[in-house]
Amino acid sequence: MKTEILKIENITEDLPLIEKAGRVLREGGLAAIPTETVYGLAANALDPAAVKKIFEAKGRPSDNPLIVHVADKDGAARLFAGTDERFEALAQKFWPGPLTVVMKKSELVPDITSGGLDTVAVRCPSHPVANAIIKAAGVPIAAPSANTSGKPSPTTAQHVADDMSGKIDLIVDGGKCEIGVESTVITLATEPPRLLRPGKVTPEELKEFLPDLVVDSAVFSELKSGETAHSPGMKYKHYSPEAEVVLLRGSLENAVNYTNKYGNAESVAVCFNGEKEKFAVPAVEYGVENDGLSLASNLFYVLRKVDDLGFSRAFVRCPAPVGLGLAVYNRLLRSAAFHVVDVDKRLPVIGLTGPTGAGKSTVAKYFAEKGFYLIDGDILAREAVKNREVLANLAKEFGADIINEDGSLNRRLTADRAFSTPEKTKALNAITHPAITALTYIEITHADRSDSKGVVIDAAALLQSPIVNMCDMLVCVIAPKEERVRRIVERDGITVDQALTRINAQKSEEYYIENTDYAISNAKGEDFHPMADEIIAQALK
Known about the structure:
Layout: E1 4-7, H1 15-26, E2 31-33, E3 40-44, H2 48-58, E4 67-69, H3 73-77, H4 85-94, E5 99-104, E6 119-123, H5 128-137, E7 141-142, H6 157-164, E8 170-173, E9 184-187, E10 194-197, H7 203-206, E11 214-215, E12 244-249, H8 252-262, E13 267-271, E14 283-285, H9 292-308, E15 313-317, H10 325-335, E16 340-342, E17 349-353, H11 360-369, E18 372-376, H12 377-384, H13 388-398, H14 411-418, H15 422-448, E19 454-458, E20 473-478, H16 481-492, H17 496-505, H18 509-514, E21 518-521, H19 529-540
Parallel strand pairs: 1-8, 2-8, 4-6, 5-9, 10-11, 12-15, 12-16, 13-14, 13-15, 17-19, 17-20, 18-19, 20-21
Antiparallel strand pairs: 2-3, 3-7, 4-7, 5-6, 9-10
């Protein structure tokens, strides 16, 4: 498919182009259009076949509901199953503008548009080009962000072209988007009403009309296993560049120290205006620290620039979650898959790793007895694979039969396949690590609020995981190969050959020793406690 680009600079003079875009949408095509928030990938919201093209072009999960865009309040009325005085007041105040309202849907709205829910999300954009195209189309328009699913949202026509050329009929170039982050989403379908996604319209502004408004927990954390996404942007990882994102919360001085300590030639600092000269690694600025609109309008542009410049990791300064800064903070949380480092208040974190069967758990329990908060990577891995997205990706990689009839993961069958070759192990890690990292951050946050002396993270694949960046000290546990085989056979009830297959899929003992700060030998007959005590003393300094 050849994607045509229409440049619109004047609504009146370019009316034929607007009518052309409207006709494409009315006839079931796809067109990327500018809005005041981000560029949207538009299709006729009432045409299931057209809406299906959106999911195909984006690679978007079909259970993720779409926002329907209308030209005015009357256009929304026929999409809702009933009326609500609160909606009337909100529309009067904030429409056209960056506010999306969720209510029970009418029979006009296809299930594919609403993600199978009995509600529909609707907004009226204020961008003159978007509004004119909706009127020209004569139908309500479903329009999620016009990017590949999961990537930073597009705020320029070039961003759209980078992701969508050859996949859609039209790109309407209306210039750079003013706000730069998606609309605020609230639901009136629950009592009390809830803020599902923050945006330009802030909770403080909304509470004038909705005094009982509550902020949904998903604004600050990932959805629980099996929990339904009632709004776009609620998935645990979203808005993310190819580079790993690490969100730094705290003072400039400590953010600089942390970045300079853990950064390298492939790292970049994403900071506030006037700060980039303080970092030893390359740095790009994304706005004025306490100016939410400045940060929002540049956020996705800069995240895309990180990839364009070829960096593999971005350390991003965290804005205060107030006003429009809440929306920026929310997008960054998901961009970083909840990998947030509090650089001002951190317990010492020891990363404990080593080859399978070496006895990490025994050493980890000793650290816990000495007052350290224990984070068990195996437990978090079991939690991570309850996530529907993670399960779906594992089934795609290792076969649908790894999913039990009750929807849970067959861990032994998955392990047999995932540890059959180093390549398969790498694929397993790529799928599970983002979710495990998010859970690890939450556990470290809990530790910070406890009376613990420090944190120890027991994780076999620590050195290949983003979690390694959370650690102040790295320790490996080693043991002779024959002893490891015996332990694995006894522990997991498998054969010697199966145990050897798992061992051979992992890195060598030398790899762990070379890439950690300390090594603890846990061979039979050896006392590991003196070495562990020395490590604890160093950590607590």
